[in-house]
Design goal:
alpha+beta, 2 strands, transmembrane helix, transmembrane, membrane
Length: 83
């Protein structure tokens, strides 16, 4: 079956041996600047998540089954209706 296997893009098939084409000198690649931008974004994300976890840990969640603690809003119960 001819064409049943995939070949590398930009490669030549010669007698069963894959020969890569030479890289063009004018080819555009992300290079060092692209790496530094992605690394800076990753580092910023790390510190943002760390800060967010610290802020979330500061939140006090009221537990419904705690004895002796009233729910917020129960400080002033409504007056009974007049007859």
């Amino acid at each position: 079956m001819r064409g049943s296997h995939r070949s590398l893009p930009g490669a030549w098939k010669t007698y069963g041996v894959t020969v890569l084409q030479p890289v063009e000198q004018n080819a555009v690649s992300p290079g060092l600047l692209g790496f530094l931008v992605v690394a800076a974004l990753g580092l910023a994300l790390f510190f943002l998540i760390k800060s967010m976890n610290r802020q979330i840990k500061k939140i006090e969640v009221p537990h419904e089954n705690e004895p002796g603690k009233d729910r917020p809003g129960d400080e002033n119960p409504p007056n009974p209706p007049a007859k």
